[in-house]
Write a structure and sequence with these properties.
With 329 residues, this protein is an alpha/beta fold. 40% of the residues lie in helices and 19% in strands. A five-stranded antiparallel β-sheet has the order 3-4-5-6-7. Strands 8-10-9-11-12 form a five-stranded mixed β-sheet, with helices on both faces. Strands 1-2 form a two-stranded antiparallel ribbon.
Amino acid sequence: MTKITRIKNKYVKAYKIMGMSLEEAVSGAMQNLKKLDHRKNYTIMHDCNRESCIDVPIAVNGAEQYAVGSIDETDVVNFALQLFLPIARLDRFKRLLKDKLSEKVFFDMLEQLDISVDDQETDREKGRVYAYTDCPKCGERRFYFSWDQVRKNIFAGCYKPGCEMHDVMDIITFVQKQKEVGYKEAVALLTDMLQQITKETRENESSIIPSIPLEYCEIKAEAQYCIVVTAKADLLTVCQFMQSESIILIEPHQMPYLKDIIVSIVPSEQILILLCETSQCEQYKLAARRAWKGDRKVIVKGLPEERHGKRLLGLTAVKLLANEFSIRM
């Protein structure tokens, strides 16, 4: 299981715009990649350009099985995200239609598509609202749009036999034909349109994991504790003497994102021990209480500040800590 993943900026931005957290995106992308295994109709290639990637603290399952030859797990994850993007956009659009569509939104969408509605009617028995206009292709009158409240979708069609718009189609296919664009472009256009009309607040956006490169992070699934150090000078000592526990270096400038980082990569059953300067102890205790509110055990320990100049003092502090919490050394 990879704990630090390099993801291309363009995918971070694309999924953020959709309001999808990177955990959801990567999980869905890897599941989608696994579903396609029986087809074997894709080719993963190595991309040596990592300048456009950012380090994201996130767990990834299954990437290692595709990492062969020059292909590494970064290549696999980014390929999976690229493959999953149109599916995620379609799912997003379907959810918006299901959750946000109303009669007003239906007619607002037609207006945004430059459709001039000549007539409308409601079939309450079938749960449908109809809007009639001229066919955008052949010009025949009585082209219809139908908002199907049961199937949670919008359908369209021309009454004139032989017209390329005659067959019943969903709203995505209609936009493809009207705008002469591909499927992915039609879904993206409709999703943007719906978000603008409904003024949807992207409720999941706050769960996007910040793009913070962690200098050191080793998560062990079987560990009882996760030791979080805030000074590089402590890292080597802690790694040397607490080899059975999870260890993360989170520098002071990364502390505002502590909760996002921890929740994304550390198993919930592991007890967090946050080691910091004694002068910062109360500050971190208060921040921990605000962040977790009792759903995760967090212990904040202040270490003597003079330890940086006396290595033996650093070893003593770590050993005392290990004894206090019965950590295996």
